Amino acid sequence: MGYHRNLTPQILEMRNRGLTYRQIQKELQCSKGTINYICRKIDMVDIGKKQYPLSKELKLQIFEYCKTHSISDAVKYFKLSTSSINKYKKIQE
């Protein structure tokens, strides 16, 4: 439990900057499970296609947002991973 508390501020700050679980894992030398546990406690999870498919509306919002904003801005705004933003910034429905 203490281990999680020590990493919590760093993990949340890194997620807010748009880093992926894999990038955080590499930098902090902790498990993805630890990262996921901490992020889920405050409902900061990626809503990517595997468990929670994105609605058509949200895909279009990402597409429109990315026309005038950077990928890192979109990651922070939508609280999604860089790979998810990159995927949906190209949707043209």
Task: Describe the protein.
This protein is mainly α and 93 residues long. It folds into two domains: 2-41; 46-93, no CATH class. It has helices at residues 2-16, 21-28, 32-41, 56-68, 71-78, 82-88. The termini are far apart. The model is unreliable at 47-51 (pLDDT under 50).
Topology:
Blueprint: H1 2-16, H2 21-28, H3 32-41, H4 56-68, H5 71-78, H6 82-88
Helix pairs in contact: 1-3
Number of extended strands: 0
What's the pLDDT, averaged over the residues?
81
Encode the helix/strand succession as letters: HHHHHH
Shape call: elongated
User: In which range does the helix fraction lie?
Assistant: 55-70%
What is the first-to-last residue Cα distance? 46 Å
Keywords:
single chain, 66% helix, mainly alpha, elongated, 0% strand, 2 domains, 93 residues
Write a concise synopsis of the structure shown.
The chain has helices at residues 2-16, 21-28, 32-41, 56-68, 71-78, 82-88. By secondary structure, the protein is mainly α.
